Here is the input.
Amino acid sequence: MLGLNQDFPLLLSTVLEHGAANYGATEIISHGHAETIRTDYASVASRARRLGSLLKGEMVGSLAWNTHRHLELFYAVTGIGSVLHTANPRLPPAQIAYTIDFAGCRTLFIDLDTLALAESLRPQLPSVEDFVIMAPRSAMPATTLPGVVCYEDLIDAGDPDFVWPIFEERTAALLCFTSGTTGAPKGALYSHRGTVLNAMSTGGGNGWGLCADDAILAVPGFFHCNGWAVPFFGPMFGAKLVLPGRSADTAFLHRLIVEEGITVGPGVPTIWLGLLEHCRSHGLRLGRLNRIFSGGTAPPAAMMEAYLRDYGVRTIHGWGMTETTSGSTMSFARDDLAVMRTQGKPLYGNQIRIVHESGAPVARDGKSPGLLQVRGHWVAGAYFRRPEVEFQTEDGWMETGDIAAIDPDNTLHLLDRAKDMVKSGGEWISSQALEDAALRHPGVLEAAVLAIPHPKWQERPFLVVVPRPGGGLTEDDLRAHLSGIVPKWWLPDSVCFVDDLPHGPTGKLAKNVLREWLKEGRLSP
Ligand code: ADP
Here is the structure.
């Protein structure tokens, strides 16, 4: 027997219309190319409807930063049942072209900031027929691109009375590619249903705890896991949104946090470490900011401690992947640092488990490591147009490539990516845990641990450190510091000091590049 509720599909257009109807005057502040716009949900919804009335094609592309126009595009494209492929301008150019071409985008929306990039990619984009420049008419540039349209002309020409169509909630809405450290990037194709459920659950009480008193700073690019759901959180929870364009400049972000009364912001730890340094060195405070959301890679414990102790800002720590539509587990931490250090528990809609290589279950005792698998309403079941890539078990769990331990109460302790673990004498050393221990030394700015081959132990850890300038850090200091934190057999066989470490397109440490440096002899253990 079926229930007798109304059968109303979970469509992204309903999220925007909810924001417009209930929080229409709530502000959205957008910092585009030499342009700051203060707008609101009512206006964004009205412009999205006009744009939606004119759009065509199954797949529309964007190569753009976080602005109100990109936000409108999210809803205009998905609202009519087309798919928005948010190409990542931070990928290597050949990979950007690959993703746009592979997706088959016929229209590409670009910013003034990405125009030069689009022009240079043009010969590699045979499928693209029209380029829409997301700029005011007065700023339309001269360009070598064919078929150029001004975004604001489309808005003006659109139908103000357009009504979003209703369709099947499992329809694809957004396409995001992994950053592809090895091989071609792979696409995660998110449905309306998965995206709405993800935002409802991760934005709620045990996740970000969002409400209409919040003001969110949208740091992660909209092209990275849908900007970690921020474009949906705003209208869904009625929160003010601040969109910093392409800038991740620390002083600029700090100014926005204070001037716009930001209460919460997402970002990779590099962003939060930079902000902490900035506040410390200039004696600055953080206004209304009361929580940061850290994801993408393990946040240093020392950073979370400093935010809580010195600024009263707690860290919501989440784990997720492109394949899990942003967040999958989150630490509901209040003021408990021990909980903040974990990756938290699955939000409703996700399940986690750990298994041996054989597939046999590993005990949830908080200690035993296993291969992490996940399943749920917004977990990818296949890659876009790559049916040959298998990453699901026969019983429907996704293999994440991460190694984790799980507590009896289901709290996740992510130990490492399987490929980054150091396998020493048949035991595993977590490169992440060793890096975290090194970062607790005040003289260490950044740390990376690599496995190097060893004749007796198979692999041993090699520690690469960016020291704080002028701090006089020595290898002996580091060893003494580490031996108070990690087991003796974890101590790195060698340590090397560098001025800088390489980062990938999402700001994470690029260990693949470091491994290349090692091969080329640029780093000597
Ligand atoms: P990429 O693989 O290109 O970095 P993703 O954003 O999909 O792109 O990365 C997902 C991976 O990032 C996870 O599999 C995990 O290894 C790592 N990760 C994400 N969040 C955390 C976290 N809170 N702690 C540790 N590692 C994390």
